Fold:
Amino acid sequence: MYVAVKGGERAIDNAHRLLAEERRGDPGVPELSLAQIEQQLALAVDRVMTEGSLHDRELAALAVKQARGDLIEAIFLLRAYRTTLPRLGVSLPLDTAAMVVHRRVSAIFKDVPGGQILGPTFDYTHRLLDFELAAPGSLLAPAGVESGGEGDRGPAPLPRVMDLLDREGLIESEPPSEPGGQVGDLTREPLTFPARRDVRLQNLARGDEGFLLAMGYATQRGYGRNHPFAGEIRHGEVAVSLAPEELGFAVEIATISVTECQMVNQFKGSSTTPAQFTRGYGLVFGAAERKAMAMALVDRALRVRELGEEPASPTQDEEFVLSHSDSVEASGFVQHLKLPHYVDFQSELVLVRDLRAAHGTGAASAAPDGR
Amino acid sequence: MTTRYNFAYLDEQTKRMIRRAVLKAVAVPGYQVPFGSREMPLSYGWGTGGVQVTASVIGPDDVLKVIDQGADDTTNAVSIRRFFARTTGVATTTSTEAATLIQTRHRIPETPLREGQILVLQVPIPEPLRWLEPREAETRKMHALEEYGVMYVRLYEDITRHGKVAQTYEYPVMVDGRYLMRPSPIPKFDNPKLDRSPALLLFGAGREKRIYAIPPWTRVKSLDFDDHPFEVEHWDRACDLCGAQGAFLDELIVDDKGGRLFICSDTDYCARRRPAGEPGPGA
Structure:
């Protein structure tokens, strides 16, 4: 017999309690602290900050803890918090040439001024499970840093490889589209098409790493191929400066950790432009290097219009890429399918039963063209 | 780390921005107004657009009703009603008549709305032309040029194939003879309630960042052909609980032998038609 679908309120309360219990897990196992997450799951924190568009390690760590390690859920939590924050000002553009560098590699020159700095990378590790890590308390000897200036760089500027190419005119120079103009902000204004590059880059920076990785990978496999070289990847700390109108000069307000990737891409030139290299750009918080590289590939792919190329692939279609890159939007819409759809489904049931009945009696062949 | 939120959660600047979009939507009935949709503390797809519209029009004297699938007691309706009870402290109700503001997903109440009421509909995909043309840049042009032939062709194709239009929900409508509009996924059963509604109808799509409106008493026509007039779904039976004829019925499977129960999807309407405490003939 029919039992009314009542008690939604109690069900929700109980679900929340269960969730809290599951989150904590076995109470015999010590609870994670935010400091542990922030320090030892640093790359998870970096991803959450990047796609959450908020540079705050502690809040990102809290989000990771609250989301039980589900990073997309953590990104959502951080985003929902971020929207409530007042906008106090807009910083000056970051000067990544003045970065305090922890890692810096260029794949296009064997050596570059300032040198190649490998830094802490998985790149040359052998992916063998390290069973010693399974037991706590394994303290490592600190990494040796050569005194020849190859370790962490001081605040002395480290010229960007791209600037060296630029000086020779080999690569497109990159003047701001509107000097002194405001950059767009997708979190305040809706996305419109065609989108300007500043807005595209913001969208990609907030975009899901997995999605960008797949899109970037597709460009490499021929879906919008753009012949990329990793011109430079650098990771480190940069200062954020703000120039309040009432002060009239810039003040440094924070230091943030970022990874920047500059791709160099082939461009054969056109009737009006001689052959030169073009750029793809990626910038993320923390050490999310894979994301920065994928972002740079996709940024370049989306520049077809301004470079007068013929778009041929979904990777070059800005509506396709930008409308589907956001994990919070995508996750919400995919998962909303579990909300009740009784009414729409009932309408479909009525229709399908009608059509089936009509099919049986041949009534459907009364259709104008007899199909 | 406790934070106090503003009345109805959104800050006043954001509400102002949304109200401007709502006003524009009311001024141009059926036109989709882009707005700076915010990230809300509930998931996209759960009604973020409706919640933002409700948050920007709700006042302390409002009486709020929230329904999902016509029902006041479905989990998402409960959750959204609680969200506003918590952030505004306004009175809530399940009564369609008592409510001044109703947020809904997928239904328009059976009880006729009256002047002065606002109905806020949650919208997943606002663009009626989306399945025919995926590109926003294109569909905006088509609306500007009133180029709606493709939609008629699509309906015509249904008729040639099935002998009737096989669109059961989000059935396209023309608003005030100008804009083609997707009435959110309400069943076409509810489409006639859009026409010359005494209440203000507001549509909010959060993920797609669009707001649109049907002001009171606006003409809303479901697309059809002279020889294939628009028709709504009907049931050859009455509600098993209240005996209502001509209400939208939900179908429940009550045992593993295919036993069915048909009951009103509008829980408030159904409950009012039954004497207090009586479960009804079918229960």
Remarks:
- Residues 12-27 of chain B form the longest helix (16 residues).
- Chain B touches chain A through 69 residues (CB under 8 Å).
